[in-house]
Amino acid sequence: MLNEIKADAQTRMGKSIDALKHDLTRIRTGRASTTLVDGIKVSYYGSETALSQVASVALGDSRSIVITPWEKNLVGPIEKAILASDLGITPTTAGTVIRLNLPPLTEERRRELAKQVGHEGENTKIAVRNIRRDALQQVKDLLKEKEITEDDERRVDDEIQKLTDRFVKEVDAVVKAKEDELLAL
Q1: What dihedral angle (degrees, nearest 10) is formed by the CA atoms of 69, 75, 78, 82?
Q2: Which of 12, 88, 146, 176 has the smallest number of CB atoms closer than 10 Å to its CB?
Q3: Nearest Cα to 11, choosing from 3, 143, 136?
């Protein structure tokens, strides 16, 4: 029973770290990445469809993304979707090929993005601590029902705390790596 609680907490904390890493891929650094356009939805025959399902998305070079729609009539809707997104990039169209040229980030913008990365990291730490709280509550409930001893409770509390500390350090490492990537010139 106690091992299940610890395993569940570890799994959930790991998923929090994975979610943080996924969220941070959407924050633009100085380099182009196809993940920047992952969240864009295009109006395709009356329904909102992911951009990657209606066009080929590739890197042109380190500062540009090339989008090639599979149907000619999708060029307009894709441009509208990109302009409506929060990317802040104006698409350039040449025939049926849409290019997104990423300008270099200003120092001020880099600092804003670094703050946003720090905020995402704090939210993940809060999620990890909430998972710890839930696990500790489950252990306390077992103690109340006299299914475990007080020694077992203290031992498991320490193990869950060590697990939490490990994941908080991992969050710090992920955030630091992304901030370094952002602030590097």
Answers
A1: 110
A2: 146
A3: 3
Q: Which of 58, 63, 94 is nearest to 79 (CA)?
A: 94
Residue type, 165: D
User: Tens of pLDDT along the chain (185 residues)?
Assistant: 888 988 999 999 999 999 988 888 777 666 777 777 877 888 888 888 888 888 888 888 878 889 899 888 888 888 888 888 877 778 888 888 888 888 777 888 888 888 888 999 999 999 999 999 999 999 899 888 888 888 888 999 999 999 999 999 999 999 998 888 887 75
Residue 166 CB neighbours (<10 A): 12
CB 55 within 8 A of CB 74: yes
CA distance 162 to 172: 15
Total number of residues shown for the chain: 185
According to DSSP, residue 88 is labeled: -
> In sequence order, which residues have a C-beta less than 8 Å from that of residue 96 and are 6 or more positions away?
68, 69, 72, 75
Pairwise CA distance, residues 116 & 113, whole Å: 5
- Count Cβ atoms below 10 Å from residue 135 Cβ, excluding itself: 25
Query: What is d(CA 95, CA 161) in angstroms, rounded to the nearest whole number?
Result: 58
Three-state DSSP class for residue 32: coil
The token pair that represents 15 in the structure block: 């998923």
